[in-house]
Amino acid sequence: MERPGQQQMADAIADAAKREEHLLVQAGTGTGKSLAYLVPSLLVDGPVVVSTATLALQSQLVDHDLPRLADAVEPLLKRRPTFAVLKGRHHYVCLARLEGTSVEEPDDALFDVGEAKPTRWLGEAGRLGKHIERLRDWAMETDTGDRDELDPGVDDSAWKLVSMPARECVGAARCPYGAECFAEASRARAREADIVVTNHSLLAVDMLSGRMIIPPHKLLVVDEAHELADRVSSASQAELTPELLERAARRCRPYVDDDVADRLMEAGDTLTVALADAPAGRVTDGLPPVLGEALTLLDGGGRKAIDAIGEVKADDADPVRKQQAKTMVGDLTKIAQRILSGSEHDVTWIERDDRGRRAVVIAPLSVAGTLNTHLFHERTVVATSATLALGGQFDTVARSLGLPVTTPSPALATGASPAEAARDAVLRASAARDEADLAWSSLDVGSPFDYAKQGILYVAAHLPRPQTSGLSDPAANELVELVQALGGRTLGLFSSRKAAERAAEVLRARAPGITILLQGEESLPILVRKFREDRNSCLLGVMSLWQGVDVPGDACQLVVIDRLPFPRPDEPLAAARSAAVDSSGGSGFAAVSVPIAAVRLAQGVGRLIRARTDKGVVAVLDSRLETARGYGPYLRASLPPFWYTTKPDLVRGALRRLADS
């Protein structure tokens, strides 16, 4: 089947690689963008790296697209192109860790030497012991050591005992199992491959570590590029918990004097007190005194511990555990120093979850400067996604990726170009830029789908403006009427767990005969399978359903979105970035919250039309998409060109006709 957008995208990538000019490509659902970038990649002299955000896309490339492509081009190239998958070290079983883990007594992932064994130890040890025995047997048979090839799998607690985080690895030269290391073997395969498939998380770590992990290459394709900045933010984020400090103290105790280890334990105790007293949320007016005391104790104790541990040598009694202790203490000490420095480029907050876990977290205010410095130089970058042209323009995404933008930002809610210029200065940080090396172009190849004929975008403009995180009675009534008109086949995307549960409660009471599937009541794969198979069902859930759920055909003909997905006021990073823009004279809401909502909304709306024959309705129960003069048109311009209406009777009639057909 001919796809003009796919051909246009492939030609543009080939041209960008030849001219060594960066390229942003928006490719709508159904374009076939994977082949559009894989085919020209084979014409590049040297290896090409493809980075994805999701395991689903990575699996599609490795298991489906690349083998088919290799078969097709082998007669033309007179050789078979090769490809490899590159993942982080923790994805591979570590032979040194496996050898040092006792079935009878696993290491300090559960508890440490000298600590009293908890009552749960006997049952936990038996379960973990069986997993470790099976992992040992598997390690003797596997060619890759890749966790994704272990079937059946093991849970995270068992895998943690036999894998090695990159920061704790002593390196192949100092490890007794270096010559047999699965992670090192995966890197060797990647160095020899024509195309290397990796993920955004490892790409971020590679950039932050000086580009020492991923093999040198001339072309980098970033698929699902709208998620890259967030993944780099996550990789740059760090946290401290009392449990981490106590574990570090126990790990280094065999290599330091008791007073040094005790100082680290004291820091953990002080941090426990500090986090118990501090409210959750951003730290904006300086560190609370007790928190500052805990960090100072950690800084001093950590420095002494590192000096006492000294150099890790290959002939040490246990170089792996010694390196783990030194690395862990070193990492925690650096985090304490970073928080104590109080840099204006970082955001610090106190975090609590429903299980009582507490932490102090720090993350960069912006990663645009990091991306500008480390992503684009000495290679050509092609960034692609179905959602790059927010508000119909590429500038917002380009800024978030650290690319220079010379045109004024969209006016959005303020219309003040000086303020927008100040916003750019804040979010792009203060890194020096050689803009001549960052020439870039953009392309929107559209989609093969006829959105205006295949779908309706309905905004319930008559509903009151949403006021709470739950589902209002008028919105609930609207939801019931829409679902009843179609008889099911509805994917409900909600902004909060409370709203999703309220929707399930109302539909179960007022829509008899329709199966209501609620996220959290069963595993997500099972819920999605049931939704596909039962035409009289509705699947309701929260943010993880907004992207990645693919249900083509008539199993999903109505997507309901309860409210515009702006970040919550208590999301620390978004709030801090908004405050930074406000303080510079701009509109933080327009500059930060609206683009976030645009990406999320486009991803959610994209769940409806997944094939040329799909038909249906996207219903947004938030009147602001129609009534907000500033950002409403911007958000609508970020969506596929559906036929647009605010008339409820018309939409219910269309849904009834779909049900009858």
Automatic annotation (TrEMBL):
GO terms for molecular function: DNA helicase activity; hydrolase activity. Pfam families: Helicase_C_2. SMART domains: HELICc2. Its EC number is 3.6.4.12. The keyword Hydrolase applies. It comes from the Bacteria. SUPFAM superfamilies: P-loop containing nucleoside triphosphate hydrolases. InterPro entries: ATP-dep_Helicase_C (IPR006555), DinG/Rad3-like (IPR045028), Helic_SF1/SF2_ATP-bd_DinG/Rad3 (IPR014013), P-loop_NTPase (IPR027417). Keywords: ATP-binding, Helicase, Hydrolase, Nucleotide-binding. It is an enzyme of class 3 (hydrolase). Residues 1-274 form the Helicase ATP-binding domain. PANTHER family: DNA REPAIR DEAD HELICASE RAD3/XP-D SUBFAMILY MEMBER, REGULATOR OF TELOMERE ELONGATION HELICASE 1. Belongs to the helicase family. DinG subfamily. This is ATP-dependent DNA helicase. It comes from Dactylosporangium cerinum. The lineage of its organism: Bacteria, Bacillati, Actinomycetota, Actinomycetes, Micromonosporales.
